Every structure is written in C-alpha cells, then in structure tokens.
Amino acid sequence: MVGRLFVIAVVAADLVFAAAALERFEAVEPHMGTLFRIELYAPSREQAAAAFQAAFARIHELDLVFSDYNPASEAMRLCRDSQGRPVQVSADLFFVLEASKRLSEASGGGFDVTAAPAIRLWREARRTGVLPTREALDKAQASRSWRDVKLDGAGSTVTLEPGMLLDFGAIAKGYAADAALDVIRGLGITSALVAASGDISAGDPPPGKPGWRVGLEWPHSAYSDRPQVLWLQNAAVSTSGDSEQFVEIGGTRYSHIIDARTLQALTRRVTVSVIARRGVDADPLATTLSILDPQAGMALLERYPGSAALITVLESGKSTRVMRSANWPMDAEGVR
User: Fold this and answer.
1) 164 with 144: CB under 8 angstroms?
2) CA distances from 73 to 166, 212, 228, 237 (A)
C-alpha cells in the first residue's frame, strides 16, 4: 500500500497503570520494502525490547510468505508448484487469499491479487518510461483472474491455473501490521501501534489519551474544510494514492495502482483513506476505493461493518472533490 500517514508522537507517560508506571518506547525496522514503526507503552525497557523483537520477527516471517520479490517466498513457491494442482499452504497465506478473493468478488474484480503479470509490466514502465502495449498486457495476464484461484478450507489447499502469479502488495502490509499488534498483545502489552508507511493498526490508546493521534497528510489536509485528525483505538487506517509512486509518459500521469479489470494504471488523481476494524481490510479497501467509482466504493464499504472512507479527487487545475462516507469522523478530533 502506498500513500503516507504520520502519527503525531505522544509524550512519554508518567501515569500509573495497574500499579506500574508505563513508559513510551519506539522502534523501527525495514521490512516488506518499507519501514515498520512500532510505538508501545510498557512497564520496562526489557518488556518493550522483548515485544519489539517478537513483533519484528513476525513481520519478517510474513515477508517470507507474501513477497513477490523473493523467489523463495511461500507465495512464489505456490505459483511455481500448483500449476493446476492443489498445494497445502500456511494459515497466513490461506487467510489472506480468502480475504482477497472475497474483496475481488465484492468489487467486481477491481481488486485482484492475480493481476501480478500486469502489475509487473507497469512496474517496468515506471522504471523505463515506456508504456506497456495492450497486446503485452493481455498476453502477460492470459485472461487469468481471481476466479481461477480455488480454495479448499478443509485441507487448507490452494489451486492456481498454470502460469498464474500473485501480488500481495495491496494487502500484505496491513495484515502484517495486524499480526505484529497481535503478538504484542499476546505479551501483555495492550497500548501499542504498528505503522507500515500508509498502513496503521492500533491497539488500546496511550495512557490518559482517547486514542492514537493520527493525522492525514496531503492532499486530504490541504483541501479539507477542517484538519484531518483521527484518534484511533483498536482499529486500523490505510491511505492509498499516487503522491510518491507514479510515472509521467507523454504528458499523462500514470499511478502505481492498477485496475485489474482493465489492466491499466490509474490516470485520475485520487487519494483514499479507509478506517476499518483490521488492517487486512483497511489496506486493500483503500486501494480498491481508489479504483472504483466513488459511489460504488462507498457502497462496497457496507460489506465491511465498522469501515469508513475519505476520498479526495484532484481534478484539472485546482479543482477538487472531497467525499466522506456517512460514518467518517466529521470533527477534527473524532475517535474511532
């Protein structure tokens, strides 16, 4: 997921909680092609260090499951080994494939982790400045889609058609943020936040605060009628947009986001933030709402209880459109 969020740091706590003073700790490590930052409140430096170590180890484990850059990852081995045959996969891979397929169906194929061949061609276009041809896109994708992914929950097996490739770039970081937060909670630390670039999963709020204070950056903040600040607790937020990853070719700006239905990169300027109960939903929903017509995107949210969205469309010149779902926090200090 691309797009940027920032968390306004909360000062170290000196409050007493459960008869123990909680202090703020923070750690950052590179994983999944971005930086994962973890903030948490713990009684001691030793407990915080143990939580950081376990959480980052979990993120690394998931990188070895979902990476499309590492040929030894579980996802890439599945693509090589299945070829029309069922392959037993880990609980993590099966869960994310289930979530991906559910969203693909709900979005009419706008979101599709099997669009990897087309995504790779557009990734090359951003590097070379040469557009992929329609013929090349059709040949690479070979009419494969999410419908060709067969899941068998009884045996935790996945069957892919020959030649299929998977790309989890729009869902894996959100899932990893959730998983890292779960590890931290399992160690008895409930006040924590995991941020992976534009994907944030938050637990209980910092001591004495209503939530984790999260500010949405440009263009939401620039064109909104009020500061876009969230107080996030036990929820996730993800932002998707082309402010950092795009290429201009022949006077047209092409986003890194690909509409799997057309295999074309987006050319309209849109930034979407989605609040959901879990990052595994917020992350892909932010991408999907970037692709869909705004009205269709808002309707899609109804399938995900507790979710909300803010959509900013930059049109020609300085014209903008800002759309919010009915339950998006309207006050500058809304708690979710």
Assistant:
1) yes
2) 11, 33, 38, 27
Q: How far apart are CA 1 and CA 183, in angstroms?
A: 22
Element (H, E) at 140: helix 134-141
304's tokens: 């995900």
Helix (H, G, I), strand (E, B) or coil at 42: strand
Domain ranges of the chain: 74-159
Q: Going along 146-234, which residue ranges are E strands? A: 150-152, 157-159, 192-196, 199-202, 212-216, 229-232
Gap between the Cα atoms of 315 and 299, Å rounded: 22
Tell which CATH architecture fits domain 74-159: Orthogonal Bundle (1.10)
DSSP string for residues in 60-71:
HHHHHHH-SS-T
Q: Which of 267, 260, 308 is nearest to 288 (CA)?
A: 260
Contact 165, 149 (CB under 8 A): no
- DSSP-H helix ranges across 196-331: 220-223, 279-291, 294-301
User: Which one-letter amino acid corresponds to residue 42?
Assistant: A
- Are 76 and 113 in contact by the 8 Å Cβ rule? The answer is no
- 258: phi then psi, degrees, rounded to nearest 5: -110, 130
Residue 165 pLDDT: 96
- pLDDT tens for 211-261 read 999 988 655 555 455 557 899 999 999 999 876 678 889 999 999 999 999
